[in-house]
Amino acid sequence: MSLDLEPRVVVEDASYVTTPKVRTTIRRLAFWLGVLVVILIGGLLTVLIAGTGTDGPDLDGTNASANGSKALVQVLRANGVTVDTPRSLDRALADVGSVTDETTIVVYDENAILTASQLTQLDGVAQNLILIEPSFRALTALAPGVHLAGFGNNSFTADCAFLPVKRAGTVSGSASSYRVDPSTDAQQCLSSGNRANSLVRLSSGSTSVTVFGISDALTNQNIVNDGNAALALGLFGQNKHLVWYLPSPADVAVPAVDAPVPLPGWVLPTETLFALVVLAAAFWRGRRFGPLVIERLPVVVRASETMEGRARLYQKASSRTHALDALRIGTLGRLAGLCGLPRLASVDEIVGAVATTTGRTVHEIRALLVDDIPSSDRQLLQLSDQLQLLELEVAETTRPI
Amino acid sequence: MAVSGRFIVLLALGVVPIVITGDPRVLAVWLAFVVVLAVLDLVVAGSARAVRVGRDLPTKVRLGDTVRADIILTNSGRRRIRGVVRDAWQPSAGASVSRARVSIPAGERRTVSTALTPFRRGERQSAHVTVRSFGPLHLAARQATIVVPGAIRVLPAFNSRKHLPSRLARLRELDGRTAVMIRGQGTEFDSLREYVRGDDVRSIDWRATARRSDLVVRTWRPERDRRVVIVIDSGRTSAARIDREPRIDTAFESALLLAALASRAGDRVDLVVYDRRVRGRVQGATGAELMSQLVDTMAPIDPELIEMDWTAVPSLVRSITSQHALVVLATSIDAPGSARGLLAVLPQLTRKHTVVVSAVTDPSVLEASTERGTRGEIYRAAAAERSLLDIARVSTAIRQLGADVVTGAPADLPPALADRYLALKAAGRL
Known about the structure:
The structure holds two protein chains of two kinds. Chain A is α/β, with parallel strands linked by helices. Chain A has helices at residues 22-50, 70-78, 89-96, 116-122, 136-142, 163-168, 228-236, 267-286, 305-316, 320-338, 347-358, 362-371, 377-398; strands spanning 8-11, 16-17, 82-84, 103-107, 128-132, 146-151, 155-157, 170-172, 176-180, 187-191, 197-204, 207-212, 241-245, 301-302. In chain A, the strands form three sheets. In chain A, strands 3-13-4-5-12-11-10 form a seven-stranded mixed β-sheet, sandwiched between helices. Chain A has a two-stranded antiparallel ribbon with strand order 6-9. A two-stranded antiparallel ribbon of chain A has the order 7-8. The longest helix of chain A is centred in the N-terminal third of the chain and has 29 residues, at 22-50. Chain A is elongated and about 135 Å long. By secondary structure, chain B is of the alpha/beta class. Chain B folds into three domains: 1-155, Sandwich (Immunoglobulin-like), CATH 2.60.40.10; 176-221, no CATH class; 224-426, von Willebrand factor, type A domain (Rossmann fold, 3-Layer(aba) Sandwich). Chain B is 35% helix and 30% strand. Chain B is built from twelve helices and 19 strands. Chain B starts with a strand and ends with a helix. The model of chain B is unreliable at 178-186 (pLDDT under 50). At the A-B interface, strand 1, strand 2, helix 8, strand 14 and helix 9 of A face strand 1, helix 1, helix 2, helix 3 and strand 2 of B. Strand 2 (16-17) of chain A pairs antiparallel with strand 9 (140-155) of chain B.
């Protein structure tokens, strides 16, 4: 440590603390904490009052949102039809009960949950079985001879004698259509052309199976369009009793699972503890020891940047003549100095002087210093080497001993 | 507040009772235990807010030197403070350690010393001191940041002062020389002395010889009380680094050496640092006062990223002196294009003053011009030749306008400029 020649300055009692007190921090945060509490309480109240409010499944008889079918079910009920809305097969079969001939059962298996064996249980349990947009499996099991035929039109006019269709007049909605084997006896309505129909009715004795492909027309949103309501009421109001069955995950058969091996009791607490340790360690290391220090730093500009840039430019453009010119002019200047010529000496004078000094021919020197044009980098290198050698040679010759 | 590594270890140790008992409830018990311990520790710890801080600092330090910077901590609280203190010096202040352990009993004071070795010129500051006070268990700490501004002015290194003794010796040699050896228009008559063998016979003062019986010669001394005006360019080109030193620092070094030499020689030195406005000015100071004012003025000046305005320089010089003066322009002469402003105003200056343009040259350019081994190097050599040529052209132009040029690598420029000054003085051209 060197001697401090300069006087020292002692400052005391000029310090003040910037870290806020705990009380101040709490007061500052109080507003935001209040906002947080209000939001939490508000959210809780909303959930409690309005329920979670999520949309129910499509065509659910208790779902009042756009994709449900509560409107249809309510109107049917108002007209004296007893409507049950079971969500499982067992429940549906129980609702049908023993009175099969006064009952219509509607199955809308949107996610193809039911297995073939479950589907066959539905066969013949009620007077009318209506399949809305059935899967391939459902068609095979319950409506043999009817096949999927892709998407149909978006609007239909009554084109058969089936009463509900006739009353409806026009029906609209995006439709799936079905094609029936020629050998099968079936009533086919709502044609999309090319033998594809969206309503197929198979009758055998007192029971019938109806395949209906326009689920869209039954939703709360679309039931009021065109004759959709008339068709729906006619179709589903055929009997006093309607079972509106939507299969749910409850219908999925669960395979038996082995009883799980219990984990030791300390595993979960240990994991929790380690998570807390990680958090605490992050706080330990992340806690700043006072604010950051700011310093204005100077820019670093290397003076040789221009030179480097120009060199890269020469190289990129392979501008050999330019490069060689620069080298030659430099050499000429130095040679003039070595030969004792003035700064303003002409090139010819320098060439002559150098030729005399070195004993080479003027032609040779001139070619090297002025005339030769390099056609490749290799030649450029050679010429530059020769220039350096020439400078050395002249320097050697003219050096006073 | 802050926690210690010990707190983390203690928390992690909870795994032992949990595994031994296998009871999940032990976790909650352990957490409560650790938190209660930490809170107790925090409550018992001395209040970091109760620390009052003072500073004991040198005002100035020369770049490269080391000084001691003290902070004085007074514990005005009721409990002892055990903990760590951080003095927040800027990085380029070169603080040896920024954290120190302290233990201050209630009502007492302690001094914490830090050695500062600044590695950049200018004003180096420490805005605040942070105190972290741990409790007796060293689990948790209270922390407070205390504002107590401190600053230390880092002066230019003046490494070129090593050249000063030899130049002063040369200056003394000029004294008492006979006029013949240094014949010029401006040398002043000093005194008469007896003739000794070897003196030029032309300097014999016959009148004085006639009055006395001995041969008497006239002696001369160099002119005194001349004006030296140093103008330093702090524009954008001065920010460029040569040999890891900005051009402006080399200019400062040369200016300091020249000023030290010229003030000893009895001349008056004025300095202006200028780009588009006057960034620093030292006028009318002499002797030791001059040097301290110079370094003080130079210390905080960094180059601005703006173009130097040469048109204002003649009037600036005129405002400093109306007499004939040696005007030193410390700038860069890279290319004819960028030197146009300088060349345009030089005639106005040379009409009245002796002008010397001092510029740093890049030794790496000279080196690059001789390395011609590979394809890349040859183009580099060409570019280097090209820039040497540019410098030569600008130098020629400056000489044609009647000014003088001094160039050199950063280490060589200050003595070169001093030599040029001595040469001018010896020739009586000041």
